[in-house]
Amino acid sequence: MRVPEHQSFAGKARRRVAACAVFLAVAVAGGLISAVPASAVAAPVSAHAALAETATTLAVPATVNPLPSVDPIGDPASFSVLVNKSRPLNPAGYAPSDLINARGSGQYMRAEAAAWLNGLFQGAADAGTGGLSIVSGYRSYAQQQQVYSYYVSIYGQAYADTISARPGYSEHQTGLAMDIGNAAGNCGLSTCFGDTAAGKWVAANAHKYGFIVRYPNGYTGTTGYSYEPWHLRYVGVALATDMNRRGFPTLEHYFAGNTAAAASIKSGADLVAADASGRLLRYPATAAGGYSGAIQIGSGWTALKQAFVVDWDIDGVYDILAQWNNGSLGVYRGLPGGGFAGQVVVGNGGWDRMTITVGKWTHAHGRPGVVGYFPDGVLRYYPNTFGGALSAPQVIGKGWNGMELTIADWEGDGANDILARTPSGSLINYRGDGWAGFFGPATTVGTGWQYMRVLAPGFGLTGAGTRGITAQTADGNLYNYGLGRGQWTTYGQVGSGWNSLKLFK
Ligand SMILES: [Zn+2]
Q1: Which residues of 198-209 are buried (b: 16+ CB within 10 A; e: fewer)?
Q2: What is the pLDDT along the chain (505 residues), one digit of tens a residue?
Q3: Which of 88, 407, 443, 450 is the most buried (most CB within 10 A)?
Q4: Domains and CATH numbers, the chain
Q5: Of 5, 53, 171, 228, which residue is the catalytic one?
Q6: 141 CA to middle of ligand 1, Å?
C-alpha cells in the first residue's frame, strides 16, 4: 500500500488548477441542467414510496439519544434546549433539580455544567490569561422578573428587551448559563471582556469544555441580544464542538434546519440522493436513527460525477455542491422557503477528473472548502473564502492517487481530518492540524471498506451533536457508523435497495 505524504503549510501553489476566480452568479447557459425544482414545495413522490420503505431502519443501539436532532430541543432539561425570545421555557416556571454552587461562588449551575466550568476556568488560568471570574448563574423565574422589571424601569421596555430576557425566556433559568468576567473583574458584564486575554481565550476555546458564547458579536438579528462575550451557555462538548467545526455562530444557526422548516434539505442528518432518472430525493432522518420515505426536491440531476450536501455560505440552510461530468463545479444555494437558487459556478474545467471532499479545512476560514486531487495525486486545498467561487489552491500533499476522500473529525477535537480509503479497502485517518495541514502519524481506522461505494458524513442522526458516516455499499445497502472521539460508536444498517441511487456526500 502506498502511503501518501503530507506537506504541512505548503503555502500557495504556484499554479492555479481547476479554480475559477470569476464569480458567475447565474446558471451556465445551455450546458448544465437546472436543478431548481419546478415547484418550490417539496412533494412526496409516490413512485418512491416503495424505495422509501426499503430504505428505512434497522434497530439503532439502545444507548443512542432518541431526540430528533433536527428539531430545536424544547425539553428545558436537555443540555441542547433552545431558549430565545420566541422560544420560552416550557413550562415557563421550570426549575432544574440538580443545581450546585459553582466553584463556591454563590452562583448556581446544573451539576454537569458546573463541572465543565471548572475545566474551563482551569484552562484559562493555565493558558496564562490571568484567569476568569464568576458573575451570574442560575436565576429563577421570579428572579428574572425582578431583573427584567429593573431594566424596564431604567431604560424602557424596548431597550430592556435587547439586554435582558423576560421571565420564562432566560437561559439563566435553565441552569446552563453563566456570566463570567476576567479575574480582575473590571470587565464584568461589559463588552470589553471580549478584548481581554481571558475573553479571547474563552471565545476560542469554550467549545472544548462544552460551552458556547451564546450572543456573539454581529448576530443580534439572529439571537435578539446585543454582543455578550461574557454569557456562556453549556450545551455539552459534542454539540459545542460540532458547532465550532461546522462554523455555526449561534444555536439558532445550528437548529436552522428546523427554523427554516420549509428548506428542501432540513438537516445534516438527512440523506440526499439522485436516482437514475435525475430526480433529486431527500430521505428525512427519523427520531429512531433511520430514514423515512423519499421526498422529491428537484429534477435534472443526471450527468453528475458526485454531489455534496454542504452549507456553502454558512447561512444555516443546506446547499448542494455539484461536481458535473462536464468538468464544472457548481453550488445550488438552498432557499429558506424551499428549493434552490440557480447554480453558481465555483470552479471551471477539469473537476470531472478530480477526486474531492468538502468540509471546513482550516480554522482560518469559516466556510467549508474543497480538498482534492487530480490523477497526479497531488492534494490541494481550495478555500471557499466568500461563499461563492473558490480561491486559488494550496498544495497540502502528494501521492494520494487512488484514495477516496472524506473530511470528518475523527478525533473529535474540532479540527477536521481526512479519512482516506485505499484501493485495498483500508480506511486511514490523516489527522488535520486545524490550519490546512496535517500532523501526527496516519492511523488505520478500518479495513474491508473496498465494498463501500460512497461515504457520506452526517450530523445528528442519533441525537443532537452526534456525528457519523453513512456508507452505501456496492450492493445497495446503507450502514451508519457513529463517530466518537477517536473511535467508532454506534453501528447499524439504515437502508437497502439503494443500488440505482447516487448518494450525495
Ligand atoms: Zn447572561
Answers
A1: bbebbbebbbbb
A2: 333 443 332 222 222 222 222 222 222 222 222 222 222 222 222 222 222 222 222 222 222 222 223 345 678 898 989 998 888 898 889 999 999 999 999 999 999 999 999 999 999 999 999 999 999 999 999 999 999 999 999 999 988 888 888 999 999 999 999 999 999 888 888 889 999 999 999 999 999 999 999 998 878 878 888 889 999 999 999 889 888 876 778 888 887 644 456 788 877 788 999 999 999 999 988 878 889 889 999 999 999 999 999 888 877 678 999 999 999 999 999 887 889 999 999 988 899 999 999 998 987 887 889 999 999 999 999 999 888 889 999 999 999 999 999 999 898 777 889 999 999 999 999 999 988 999 889 999 999 999 999 999 988 787 766 789 999 999 999 999 999 889 999 899 999 999 999 999 9
A3: 407
A4: 5-65+260-503 (2.120.10), 99-254 (3.30.1380.10)
A5: 228
A6: 14
Q: Which three cell numbers stand for residue 390?
A: 473558490
Residues with CB under 5 A from ligand 1 (ion): 179, 231
Q: Which three cell numbers stand for residue 339?
A: 428549493
What is the distance in A from the centroid of ligand 1 to the CA of 418?
Answer: 38
Q: How far is the CA of 244 from the centre of ligand 1 (A)?
A: 20
Chain centre to alpha carbon of residue 142: 36
Check if 252 is active-site. Answer: no
Instruction: Tell me how far the alpha carbon of residue 77 lies from the centroid of ligand 1, in angstroms.
Output: 18
Identify the DSSP state of 154.
H
CA distance 470 to 329: 23
